[in-house]
Amino acid sequence: MEIVILESPAEVGRVAAALVGKVVTDRPDAVLGLATGSSPLGIYRSLAARVAEGELDFSRASGFALDEYVGIPLTHPESYAAVIARDVIEPLGLDPARVRVPDGRADDLEAAAVEYDGAIRTAGGVDIQILGIGANGHIGFNEPTSSFASRTRIKTLAPSTREANARFFDDPAQVPTHCLTQGLGTILEAKRVVLVAQGAAKAHAIAAAVEGPLSAMCPGSALQLHEHATIVVDEEAAAELALAEYYRYTYAHKPEWQRFD
């Protein structure tokens, strides 16, 4: 894993966006793995600014969202279909027909999950997967005890996850209890992964994912098995990393030809 520690959340967004931008520049028809939540918003804002300046073109790219709530109306502003349209598709100039979100309203949710997983493989796989991480270590909606081999499937959201997401709803009772999420096995098949985290609330999860043992209790630790995973965090999120000084040193001395920022 490559660990990048930066001064501010704004820098986290800029540097992670540079990695995504490099992938799209090298391959204009890249397949993007799209996360929602507050953590990746800085990435999307930075990418949108570069699109507006004419530096990047996402018109040929496609995307697969990580997850979707079960049962939430498609028109609800907090459905991930609506969030992806608002925060990603429109500002980046993606073709809406090329971006898919799991169907949390399907009559047969299990079949919808299997079909979605298959569609990612049919598309040739994800070229770069954007991720955040929950305070309990979840990535996507793979809550603690998720199998590292899991595929896209129905999951019950942990109470702590519903509590964390309640800020997006008028009433905590409105937060759905279930979701469709890409599995850890699905995520690990992405060719590259960039995970971002900001703030002290994520410090324990980052330390467990990066330096802790491989454990289903911290789903993010599965990324230790990935060949090209880059973890970009601010100083607060890095506060519990035992080897923080080493990560700062290695990034500062990274060869110019390997840099993406």
Automatic annotation (TrEMBL):
InterPro entries xref list: Glc/Gal-6P_isomerase, Glucosamine6P_isomerase, Glucosamine6P_isomerase_CS, NagB/RpiA_transferase-like
Pathway linked to the protein: Amino-sugar metabolism; N-acetylneuraminate degradation; D-fructose 6-phosphate from N-acetylneuraminate: step 5/5
UniProt site (Part of the allosteric site): S146, R153, K155, T156
Keywords in alphabetical order: Allosteric enzyme, Carbohydrate metabolism, Hydrolase
EC numbers on record: 3.5.99.6
Stretches assigned to the Glucosamine/galactosamine-6-phosphate isomerase domain: 14-228
PROSITE patterns for this protein: GLC_GALNAC_ISOMERASE (PS01161)
Activity regulation behaviour: Allosterically activated by N-acetylglucosamine 6-phosphate (GlcNAc6P).
Role noted for this protein: Catalyzes the reversible isomerization-deamination of glucosamine 6-phosphate (GlcN6P) to form fructose 6-phosphate (Fru6P) and ammonium ion.
Protein name as it appears in the record: Glucosamine-6-phosphate deaminase
Source organism: Frondihabitans cladoniiphilus
Gene, per the UniProt record: nagB_1
